[in-house]
Amino acid sequence: MNATAEVYSLLPALIVLLPIIGAIAGYLVGLRWPTGRDLLCVFTVGITAALTFTFYPAISRGTVIVGSVQILVPLGVTFRLDSLGFLLTSLTAVIWFLATLYSLSYMKGEHGVNRYYAFLMVTFSGAVGTFMAGDLFSFFLFFELMSLPAAVLVIHEETAEAVQAALKYLFMTVAGSLMFFFSMVATFEMAGSVALGGRGLIAEASPVAFLTFAGFVIALGMKAGMVPLHMWLPDAHPVAPSPASALLSGIMIKTGAYGMLRVMYEVFGLEFLQATGWNTVVLVLSVVTILLGSSVAITQYDLKRRLAYSSIGQMGCILLGMGLMSERALTGDVFYFFADAVAKSCLFLCAGVILKTTGKRDIRQFAGLGQRLPVTMVCFAVAALTLMGIPPLNGFVSKWQLSVGAFDAGMPGYALALLASSMLNAVYYLPIVMTAFFDHPTPVEAAAVAAPPTGGGRGTRRWLPEASATMLVPMLVLALGCAVFALSPGNWPLRLSEAAARVLFSK
Amino acid sequence: MPTLVDVMTILAGPVAAAAPAGYRESLLPFWVVVAVLSTIPLVGLAALIPARFRAMEAAGVGAAVLALALVGWLWLLTADGPLLARIPGVLGQGIAFSAGRQGLFFALVTAGVWLAASMLAVDYLPAGTSRARYHVFSTFCLACAIARYLSADLFTLFLFFEMLSLGFYVLVIHDQTPQALAAGRTYLFLSILGGLSILAGMGVLVAITRGTVLKPDPALHSLAGVITVAAMYLGFAVKAGLVPAHFWVPRALPAAPAPAAMLIGAVIVKTGVYGVLRTINLLTPAGAVTDWTPAMTAGRILLVVALGTMLLGAFLAIFQAGAKRMLAYSSVSQIGLTGVGLSLGFILADAGAVALGGMALHVLNHAVAGGALLMLVGMVAMKAGSSDLGLLKGVGRRSPLLALTFVLAIAGMAGLPGFPGYASRAMILEGWRAAAGLGLPELRVLEVVYHLASALVVAYAARLAWELLASRPGEQPFALTARDSALVAGLGILLAFTGIRPAFWLGRLVVPFIEAFGYPPEIAAALAAFDFVSPRPLLATAVAAALGLALFGYLGRRNLVLPFSLPRWSMEALVDAVVFWGVKACRLAASVDSTLDPTRAVPYGQGAARAVAAFDKSLDPSRVVPAGREGAMFAAMVERSLDPEALARLAGTAAGLATAAEKALDPAKAVAEGRRAQGWLDRARAGGARSRSAAMASVRNWFRPAPTPARDGGETGAGECPRHRTIMNIDVAGLMMAAVMLAALVVFVLLAGN
């Protein structure tokens, strides 16, 4: 067992607190001065993101950051930040920053902007808190802090279907929370502790232990969009404003998978699951998730709905990776969190530009968009290729590690599921790109290309007329992120993924 | 004085010690790839220069020249052994490039053809299409193709294979017509499927050998090894256009613009051949294992596939109406021929060097002859506005230079002696001769099939020559520009040189290629001295030519329509079926998915909630208030009844009763009472007699008939009224009477009892 150095720090508490303060301050400022609120929000998220990166030197040395705040006694809120938590926290912070930046233009002139930003920030606090939680109780706390305010983001448009979707989301979330609470209590009863970071809390296989496991799988699988608990996802993600969709699909569903990972490796433990074989539950459900999510995505023609179903398929791959129980697969899996978060957020941001500029949601009407929105569509294509697992992009690295991990684990059949996922991804992503770039547009669309653009800010500029810079820059950064990390030899997300997998396997 | 090569070697850095046996560590292959890749943005930048300067086209050609020069330079550098460049960390796994002569041979051919295609692209891209896009993606594909041949391991190879597949899609659909888009889709999805197959094989390879190095490994002589090789073979066979995955070639090639069509036929399919070669080579003996059986078995399987490809391609080529489609099938059949050489090379073990050499030489020959034909047909088809053979009739008559080049290329395709294509066939025939020595009966059968297929090749070549050169010219005006003439003349010289001096290429390119496989040196030496003009191949060629011409002569009188329609189970139908059922499966998944929607449970939930509400209402305590009240009243009554005062009162009453009873028991009183009762009885008897007579009178009254109702009042029901009144009157009286009587009776009985 490696002696891992631990450093006590209350910075995680500050990181969680800052956005909440920002939310309140932003709301109050926004009542009088919208520009000030915009600046404040971007600034707060930016500062928070910068703060998370201050952990990097310590984390890269293998140190674990711990901290606790004695509120809500007797358990208290504890923080524990290891390489896995750090990777996801910093990823969350960066993507949130980009999405907030994107919101500046996207939300301009929309209703309820003040409310939107306030809840965006509270959700942010919950999301980073979830990834930094040091025990199940804190995890639960932050999980709720993220999930419930997110309903306000879902309902933002206030249309009938938004209300419907938000209700569905809320009910399923609450049901999941209750399952989580049950399992958490059961864990505490059996193990006497709910602290994460160990090698497994529950030592003995019993019916109650299995119920606990099932409860966790249901609660976290619900959040992660695991079939058959995914039905809230394809309704809730498309109706939210695009930057919020990007965060819902890019980050928030990852918290469910992240919780599952912690539960599998730190509440139950590697040896325990290998001995009992309960991970088969997750494996089988994840294969169903991959196949069902991807196949249904093919039948969807609403872009954001297709992306939402695609998210379900990708989450299947992520859940599969953690169920394989091999170090290489877990490396690929953690990197998959990263790759999918970057690419999926990019896709939703692109969908937002398409929606905002052309009003189009139906991908059959995308002919000519490649000429009209070149930057957006190139970003879209890059992100889509990433998710298909085409080298040399991020998605390939993770799929490769996952496949080889499946062979390492002696379960090559699951590698076939990953290959099928890639093929299905190609079937539903490539036609979008092909239509946008190569199909001949209808005369109306051709005229729209030729005419000076009208939407998207000061459109009279000669350069980058398709959208304002605050929308284009986040997309470009994310699209670049899809390729840069895979190609650069000093790939820190991958290094961190390897470190995370090593820690989970070598303790 | 140091040569340029020495200087560059020094610049490439010191030779590391850790290189695997037989390799020299050097970053040169990597820098070559980087150099070729870096031309892509240059071509893109050139697109910004006004079109009249033709900067973009120049940059495209320049990139191809650079690639050819760099690859040629690497070829010279690797005389002493391959170079290896390892770049750790990229894509997590690390990638590696090596300059070995196996890959460099293919890279040279590829770069050469690409140069020609880039020159063709200067003038022969359709008007109104995006030239910049073509040139950028063409350079991108060139870079990927070169990098692919310089890959040291399967991981790197796969990386560039996928990039090439995706990039080439843009060239296939360049015209953006519906046909081109459809062909592009077929190409792209097949490529991705093939790529996934390779990926699967690669996964097993890693599981077996802990790495992805493409070298023969004893660990592969196992079931897992067979799976690896099979999966990888399938992936590469798709790219090579081997049966049954050949059908993307005749779809994509005619739809692509002329330079891209040339690349498909002459280069792209060969990337697949190279992959198949490296794949089967994995099974050859290595280290302690000296068993050739796995490689030979793989070779025999491939031989059947390759012959099938050759036969089918040649047969279908005869019946095509369009020159491009004919050349597409021709490419398929020539790839089949290449595959035959390849498989014979493995079947014959160490003696297979000659067949493998024939394969390599054929790759070169077909790149020259097939590439030339595709180029010429692309030129004339573009000028004519169609590749329909009917419209291209007799184009050769318009220009002797064109006609001569066509003759050289078509004769090379047919494999006539003295033309490019003959020398490689002679070597493959030598391979067949050696195979006959193995004494395997099925090889004799397959050899006959091979000769038949060769005859079919001659037949379609003859038809192409006949249509283009001999028949009467069509209406289309046609003239070669000076630049065209130079290009055609250059091609003609290359064709003639390749045809006449096969030993030149054999010695300089093919023998080093064969040496890189590690054959014994004497075999390579024997190969270098191969005699092309021996009677056996000449005779075989003559027979095939005669058969082919006879077949064409026989068919030429007919309409040259396929004598039967393609079977419904052809690959195209199969693909359509897969798509059809795939869509169905997705729809099914969607409907399954919608059944999972929890909102479907809402009505049931509401029903349950209503039931609960009803139950809930039943629990309402106010419902029990009346019953409670009654209970309370009862309780109050009971309580009251328990009041001692009431008891006392009751006791008092009882005592009073008792006193009265005791008083009533006094006998004297009873006598007095009895007397009084006697008096009552007497009075009652008298009263009874009176009332009896009165009663009898009233009963008589009762039965007296009612007065007849007035006739006129009958309808209003007034007739009942009198009787009713009567009854009422009688009734009250009678009832009162009866009651009194009853009471009297009771009193009587009571008293009598006493």
Strands across the major sheet of chain A, in which order? Answer: 1-2-3
Count the E strands of chain A: 3
Biggest pleated-sheet summary of chain B? 3 strands, mixed
Number of domains of chain A: 1
Helix content of chain A: over 70%
Specify the number of helices of chain B: 26
Average pLDDT of chain B, to the nearest integer? Answer: 84
Please give the largest β-sheet of chain A: 3 strands, mixed
Distance between the termini of chain B: 168 Å
Shape of chain B: elongated
Radius of gyration of chain B: 55 Å
Distance between the termini of chain A: 5 Å
Which stretches of chain A of 5+ consecutive residues score pLDDT under 50?
453-464
Assembly status = heterodimer
Strand content of chain B: under 5%
Number of E strands of chain B:
3
Indicate the topology:
The complex is a heterodimer of chains A (507) and B (754).
Chain A: E1 6-8, H1 11-32, H2 34-53, H3 56-60, E2 64-69, E3 77-81, H4 83-106, H5 113-132, H6 136-154, H7 160-191, H8 207-224, H9 233-239, H10 242-276, H11 279-299, H12 303-323, H13 327-358, H14 369-372, H15 374-388, H16 394-408, H17 412-438, H18 443-450, H19 469-487, H20 492-506
Parallel strand pairs in A: 1-2
Antiparallel strand pairs in A: 2-3
Chain B: H1 4-11, E1 24-25, H2 28-46, H3 55-77, E2 83-87, E3 95-99, H4 101-123, H5 131-149, H6 154-172, H7 178-209, H8 223-240, H9 248-255, H10 258-281, H11 293-318, H12 323-347, H13 353-384, H14 400-414, H15 422-436, H16 441-470, H17 482-500, H18 502-515, H19 521-528, H20 535-556, H21 571-595, H22 602-618, H23 625-641, H24 644-664, H25 667-703, H26 720-753
Parallel strand pairs in B: 1-2
Antiparallel strand pairs in B: 2-3
